[in-house]
## 1
Amino acid sequence: MVSITHLTSAHPRYDARIFLKECCSLIKNYSVNLIVADGLGYEEKNSVKIYDVGVENGRFNRIFKTTKNVLQKAIEVDSDIYHLHDPELIPIGIKLKKLGKKVIFDAHEDLPKQILEKHYLNKFNKKILSFTIAKLEIMALKRFDFVVSATPIIRDKFLKYKIKSIDINNFPMLNELIEIKPLFETATVCYIGILYDTRGIREIVKAVEDLNVKLIIAGKFFDKKFEEEIKSLEGWKKVDFRGFVDREEIKKILEESVAGLVTLYPTPSYIEAYPVKMFEYMSAGIAVIASNFELYKEFIEKSKSGFTVDPLDILEITKTIKRVINDREMAKDMGQHGKKAIMKKYNWNNEEQKLFHLYQEII
């Protein structure tokens, strides 16, 4: 049987895209390994063998020591195909190609554009580094067998350079959230995800300040100062903060909510990437209130599943939340439209077939 190994130096072992979707799909037809660096040891789950190379503290150690450990384990498992998930693993891919292996790179995000958003780099250094990385990335990936892209926009960037690429989108799995039946009984909206300022948290908390509404926020703050700022806002009195929650708790939150918020800032990485939560809200059958980016509007307007707003316009967000809360039947219809769109088109079952076709082509 053909052996496949997925490699990550930064993602958790049960990452939704890497493990739950790609690895657990491929195990149906192949022998699948996953190499991680989380310190949790060896495990076999859903027939996928998970190898752990241990944790190295600090960005520098992760880039150099961890990648070296990942390469050693990759050579040890001796697979036919290697599927890489982090930019720092690209040099590993080149070494594996020299050993005669098939190599795939999974571009979750547009790396050069992501660098432009690094707050710890000054403006000049960001531009120089982004330009340099863009050139090196193209040179390296031309040597790989295929590039998997998380969105069509990233796919097209690689195709322009005649790099074999296909978009395999992070659409939801039908067996998880599609059975949720929202109650639409209370004036409740939700945000589920990472709690950074660029995720629009400040604006949505301010938006509910004068509304008779409950805002459920589920996620983890990664910046203490930002957390203190948000919790000091007047609108925080309307917030039901759940912290980091598991998938079962997410289901309960979605059942309780009328609409889900995904009002991300207009940064390059957000404008050109699909927000997984938007599709999860649709899958659960609740209305969506999302940023007015062209990529988001395409889905929401076609499916009639919600509204798009200027993520920096607090008044517009407030009016839209009020509109959805005050017209529950409209919100319910939007939720049903979104659920139908997920069941018909925007789901992992369809993306899985693209993944299988890719591997069949490489083999």
Note: The longest helix spans residues 59-77.
## 2
Amino acid sequence: MDQLSFVTDTPTREALRTYRDLLVEHRAAASLTSLQDPDEIDRRLVGEPLILLDFLEARGVATSPAIDIGSGAGTPGLPIKIVRPALRITLLEATAKKAVFLEKAVSALGVEDVEVVAARAEELAHDPGHRESYQLALARAVAPLPALIEIALPFLAVGGRLATPKGSSARDEVAASANALAMCGGEVEAVESMALPWEGVAPTVVIVRKVAETPDRYPRRPGIPAKRPL
């Protein structure tokens, strides 16, 4: 089965294939993913980000400029960029070898308006060039929601959204996030499962809207949001 058959534009599908091939080629050296089956990589790392994009656009979520926090292998940010060339996006990754891969992938794909930043999110969020500069923050498998809210919301302008795919613990994570939301100026806008065009467990997407400015003291220094969630 062609895992990306739902992408009808041939050049776009070929660009996504190129990205998939780069993942397969560099996955071991750059520790990009534990997935090995190309079809599974298509589904999880290439296809699901596109379903997420449709999910967000159907709900009127502004997608540019965006930041992909803990981008790792470039997902969900790079597949979304491939299908939305006008999108301005920052790929934020703290691990140097993964950031090097992202630079290689951006160059190989020939996409523009993509910035790769090798830094810790807790530090970059205090940089005036990035703080409150984005309409959308994406994060896949970065941290439990209470910590992620503290890390991500400082990047967003008021009215921007954090969108994060979660597993079966999504609603428990939301319930544990009440204090983080209150402290960082967010409110949960949606907790919904994505509809997938293949068999499998669909991620549950949590969308958090930023409704007030985040106090300057957040996020706390690297590692603290995960160790001591708000």
Note: The radius of gyration is 17 Å.
## 3
Amino acid sequence: MGLKCSLKHAALMGASAAERLFIPGAKPSLHACRNFLLLQYATALGTTVHATPLVRALKEARPDANIAVAANSLALPLYAFHPAVDTVIATPSPLTDLRVAIGILRDAKLFAGEPFAAITTLGNERTRVALALAMGGPVVRVGFTEAPELYQATLRLDPQRSVIENNLRIAQLFGYSPRHFEPEVHFREEDLQWAKNALQGSGVRDGQMVVAFVTQTSVTQRKGWRPERFQAAARHMIERHGAQVVFLGTESESVAIETIRSGLGNGTSTFAGKTTLLQLTALLSLCRVGLTLDTGILHLGRAVGLPMAIIAPAWSPPIEWLPLGNPRYRILKNADIPFAPPDYIIDEVPAEEAITALDDLVAKFSEGALAKQSPFSAERGNPTK
């Protein structure tokens, strides 16, 4: 162990001793816990979405559970209207403002003062998150962490399991044997109405098929597909199925999206940078099928059950993030390499394969994702400050 690690370990052991001395109070056994606080401060959209199955698993295993979620601005809307979540708490990330995060968690007076279990899923392992929890009173801390000295039960990533299955292992620490759950993101009636109006305003006719295209990904991730292949797939959906192709992404991706659209003429529209996360999720729920790279919006589509053809890079293990074995998805991955070369692009997936996958999904899933979620009351869903 290096000097830096030794000093960190000693500091955390000291913090643990100080907690026992200055924050007295009985901690419940793991099997007795019925109050759960889920911490969500990941910076990646997919990481946040892939933690939602744990909420459903805890509620199914223990119907009398009280579940709260503390989150920053990225994660907060993804949990605010989840039917298994009882309370949502808006805080800054402890990584950027530890003092304020601690203050808000203390002032929230969670679970009427009853002891609770605080949970950190994958992507929320950082030591400052653990320190925020350590200041919160007689609380059991479990999950994935870089500070095991402050936790009662910890896990390490199992690379042979998906992110979802790794997170569901947390339920086993409480004595439960959870079944698999898919991700969930719930939106409001106003988000759904916005999406309907936006599609109508973009020229979508009543009853016309809408196809979602996600053509851009982070510049730090080598997961691109050639623009002309997206154009070929879009042209096919427009000409064969009479579809409207809607392009989704961030504002920074708008120029690249317009380059693709410029070669297509009529039959497309773009909402890049024009939606909130919940509006984007509602819009995905109204699409029939989608064609997407392995990127954040893919996970929102999965959370509403949108059938999708997924163009996967050769260098990324599909078990980690992709919905393997699910008939609603076609994973297009035709090579396997240990790392991405500097000039890597997904050339091993031809346009014809994506077109065939989309046609197959259209034939098998006549209703697409649909808006299958009921809106929840504003009182129940409003984040607390």
Note: The longest helix spans residues 3-22.
## 4
Amino acid sequence: MPLATPTYHNSLSNFCIVGINYRKSDTSIRGKFSLSQERSALLLQQAVSRQISGCLVLSTCNRTEVYGLCRNPGELVEMLCENTHCQADEFMAHGYIYQSKKAIEHLFKVASGLDSQIIGDFEILSQLKQSAKIAKQNGSLNSVLERIINYALQTSKDIKTKTKLSSGTVSVSYAAIEIIKEKIKDIRGKKILLSGIGKFGNHIAKNLKEYLGDATISFTNRTDEKASELALKYEANFIPYKDLSSASNEADVVIVNSSAEYYTILPSFFTTAKPRLLLDLSVPQNIHPDVKNIEGTTLFNVDEVSLILDKTISLRQAEISKAMDIINDTLDHLVEWHRQYANSPFLNQVKSQLYQLSEIYLSNTVKEEKIHKAISSLAIQLKHKNNKGCQCISTLNNYLQKNYESSS
């Protein structure tokens, strides 16, 4: 009887992650490896064409990661570089590669906010869900990768409810609010412009309305319709994107959260001399660095915005060990599920053989519970020692012997 063996794209040992994040690279490097939605979709389609049936892309302001079930993580590195026009040696200088359990643990940390630039920041969770949705739409989310993602989401939920890792309102979008409140003591009547709805623009808009409601808030975006809808939702002003230059010049605070691959805010925009605060939450950077040379202008990029939360982060450090216990426990559950998943085709084959043997060699009526008991016993044996050939023969022999004796 041929024995079923799982193919490489269903094995946890072949789960790989290749990525670039804030730990080893600044915004300029991360910007080079950033993937737009269009580029992400192309990479996923490329993975399917290369018979990598499980593949997912996560690209945020702090990281770009490609997850895949493949023979060699070099395949993922190659696709990432092809779709960002970067060189492999540049990736190796700044990136990282994880495989097997180490990769799954990393994913769980990402989903749980343990690997966020601001520890405990759960904004990444909605982005991970969206990435899984896009992967499914492109046919690159097979059953094993989908289960891994589901376990990651469950881990995140457990950590959020059972620990204080996310205590306090902490995120990059909220950090931006804290900087504005610190730099501008009286916000009443000040003009705040949010340019670019971006990947978490809704969070920024919500925080602006909630914490800086006394200011005059305006939204603009390369797609006017998106900015208009958001402005209506939060009772803010809508600025057509063609008026970005004049609106920036008039604003006291400009927040940029765009996925554009070029500078959208230029020094030439600012013709009126006055104090200004500019916050660039984009990767790649969207505010030209020379803007900070304009008198009265203060410029923060996304890395600098994150630094103000160090105090809160230190309070969350004590919760890391609790979070890791949950991660390790969930990882054990995933490994156990996968063991059963991998053995399922084999157990079904043995079960089929037992039915056939019963019809040929046993005169008594086959009882479901006897076959179920034999398969359950085999499943337990496989947990402790995976020697399918010998265990299959032993199960068939024991079943025949016991049932022959009982019918004699």
Note: Residues 197 and 226 are 7 Å apart (CA to CA).
